[in-house]
Amino acid sequence: MPAVTDSSSPDTSTLPPYVLALKERVAYLPEPQVARVIRAYEVGAVAHEGQARKSGEPYITHPVAVAGILAELGMDAETIIAAILHDTLEDTALSRTELAGEFGETVAELVDGVTKLDKMRFSSRQEADAESFRKMLLAMARDLRVILIKLADRLHNMRTLGAKDAPSRRRIARETLEIYAPIAQRLGMNKFKAELQDLGFRALYPDRYRVISERIRAALGNRREAMGKIEAALSTRLTADHITARVVGRIKSAWSIYSKMRNEHKSFAQLMDVYGFRVVVDSAMSCYMALGAVHGLYKPVDRRFKDFIAIPKANGYQSLHTVLLGPFGAPIEVQIRTAEMDSVAERGVAAHWAYKTDSGPANSAQARAREWLSSLADSQAHTVSSSEFIENVKIDLFPDEVYLFTPRGDILALPRNATALDFAYAVHTDVGDHAVAARVDKKLVPLRTRLESGQLVEIITAPSALPNPAWLESVVTGKARTAIRQYLKHLQHEDAVDFGHRMLDRALDALGTSLDAIPPAVLDRFLETSKLKRLEELLSDIALGNRVPHLVASQLVAARGKKSTEVQQSPHAMEKIRITGAERGVLSFSNCCHPLPGDEIIGYLSSGKGIVVHRVECPNVVELRKSPERCVAIEWDRDVQGDYRAELRIEVINRPGVLATVAAAIAAANSNIENVEYVERDAAAATLLFALEVKNRKHLADVIRRVRRTGVVSGAYRYPL
Asked: Where would I find the ACT domain in this sequence (predicted)?
């Protein structure tokens, strides 16, 4: 591909019809900018020459169509040009340098942001998709126009999906419904969202789409007269109150009907038995006046009024929502907004883009989108795995929010089902890390309490409070999840270093030396040979089972210049390493024998998992001892805290209430039941397997004694024996 140089005003007389149509759509731009757009087409056409779409059309028709979608939104020239060239870096010989030289660095940045990472090697298609998506979101955080190009690209691909094979159609449709439609909604672009959902639904579930669409058409045909009467009544009342307004009927989409039928377990008739209208007025004050007028016409339904003008949604959406009792026995949903709010509701961040000044965003949707993207960029900086990052993004794409007040009167928007702990992390990571409780509407509540819109939330902190793994089950926001995981990984690393140090010391002790006796130069040389940067990495590797302590010890002694046979074995070499059970991420307890404090135990170094603890009498230990270099001599410390899983096999007389009797006896012994299942059962007797939480071996013995005293038990014993 030759370098791109000529940027003179192009001759448009020979342009194909689809490019002439684009030229008309971008007529709102100054003439020199229109010339640059046509030049971008010429460069793209040469770059994509010989390439065709699955439908057989020249490939260049696709990027031109994407540019046309963005032109309908009134986007600036850089966005239109980048849209025309958005596949050149990925699919053609055109280089980034050539692109920047002809059209500027901004266009090159936008095209690069949309470009996938296909040139890199990944272990799976899922990993490649996740990393490409992560790259796009980071580019999006730098410039919102990246996602606008990507959404327009996806929209045109969905419109022309028919040329793809069935598996590709389903994969692309599912990705559209799970990721791209929610992003469009998060950015306030409801028009894009609605079409992406409609096309995704049609491609993923064609039969369901057809049935629901036909029923919607039939229902609307039957109620056209009623809708006309309500619309006329609303218009007449608004005119009588001297309010200039435009009233239009609203129709639910097939996807929204299907989603509500599935998620809310409602019938089609229940969902369609609602009349929807939108009232568009000239000012915010007129919105409230119009609200009074429609409430004067039909009685409002209690607790169904929402003011998204005073408290906008997280994506910048503003409107008044109310539900009225209509004349035909069915509720009437009314949205009241200004023309400006209507534009932002339809186009979101793309509204009035061409008129945006450099001093700041043109509308609230853009300001809120930047806040969201800033939090995403912060989240990804602390998330190693692309897949985990994408999961956090999906969590943040919840369509429903709760709006909460801080003690200073600030408003925070969080996903539905968010807890006080999510709120704490939304305020600041340090507040979340040290949270102990919350006050919701001045009442003290636990951190796991779910919050509802309108509540006043205050977080109580303590310097000594720290995150724990159970918190991950209480949070729903990506920010909270990332912060908690980051802290736990830090703790795990600290514990791994400490435990690895003890294991290596013990192994060196067995060879009559110690880590302090190894010269720093020898240690540095060993680390360099092992491709490790610091001693902490070596110690962590040992604790996580990636290196065997005895082998490392022997190698260090050999590197020091002594053979292991020359050193005296220390009398302390046979001392066992003591564990408290709280060594996070380093220790795990085997499911085959469920060791408890008080049991005689042995550790086995499992690569990547660290030490897996077994009871010495566990049947699997015989096999483990065949790899003596991986067996670790350990014992319980004197002071062991926490709860441990144990299994109890109980044989009972089969009669009504027996399960409740046994459960009550277990609860009376201060033990928590995690699970219970029937192993055997007949008319006379049954065998139950209980999974319990106990403190130690003595606590389990107390549980067994209480269970045996119930009078309904013929046998109770630890399982496995």
From this structure: 647-721
Read off the amino acid at residue 626.
Answer: K
CATH code of the domain occupying 401-476: 3.10.20.30
42, 57, 87, 91: the catalytic one is 91
Query: What sign results for the dihedral spanned by CA atoms 288, 291, 293, 295?
Result: negative
Give pLDDT tens digits for 50-103: 888 877 888 899 999 999 999 998 888 999 999 999 888 888 888 888 888 999
Q: What are phi and psi of 110, to 5 degrees?
A: -65, -45
Q: Catalytic: 91?
A: yes
CATH dotted code for 17-203: 1.10.3210.10
Kindly state the average pLDDT of the residues 255-262: 86
Closest CA to 403 of 414, 389, 395, 392: 414
CA torsion 105→107→108→113, rounded to 10°?
A: 120
Q: What CA–CA distance (Å, rounded) separates 535 from 518?
A: 12
Domain boundaries, the chain: 17-203, 207-350, 401-476, 486-636, 644-719
Residues 240 and 199: beta-carbon distance below 8 Å: no
Query: Is-contact 476 417, C-beta < 8 A?
Result: yes
SS3 for 66?
helix
Helices 105-114 and 125-142: crossing angle, nearest 10°?
150
d(CA 368, CA 186): 9
For residue 515, the 8-state DSSP code is G
Query: In the chain, how long is the greatest CA-to-CA distance?
Result: 106
Reduced to 3 DSSP states, what percent helix, strand and coil does the chain have, rounded to the nearest 5? 50, 15, 35
Q: 305 CB contacts (<8 Å, ≥6 apart)? A: 320, 321, 322, 323
Q: How far apart are CA 80 and CA 560, in angstroms?
A: 67
Answer whether 335's CB lies under 8 Å from 305's CB: no
CATH number of this structure's domain 207-350, picked from the four choices 3.30.460.10, 3.40.50.10330, 3.40.140.10, 3.40.50.10940: 3.30.460.10
What is the model's pLDDT at position 35?
Answer: 92
Task: Tell me the C-alpha distance between 475 and 467, whole Å.
Answer: 12
Is residue 574 pLDDT above 60, yes or no?
Answer: no
Question: Closest Cα to residue 494, out of 586, 430, 562, 428?
Answer: 586
Name the catalytic one among 90, 241, 346, 391. Answer: 90
Intrachain domains 17-203 and 401-476 with the same fold: no
* pLDDT at residue 492 in the model: 76
Nearest to 663 by CA among 683, 682, 697, 691: 691
Given this structure, which CATH class describes domain 644-719? Answer: alpha beta
What are 323-379's pLDDT values in tens digits? 998 887 788 899 999 999 998 888 877 776 654 544 444 556 677 777 776 666 666
Within 382-443, residue ranges assigned H as helices are: 386-396, 420-427, 429-433
682 φ, ψ (degrees, to nearest 5): -140, -170
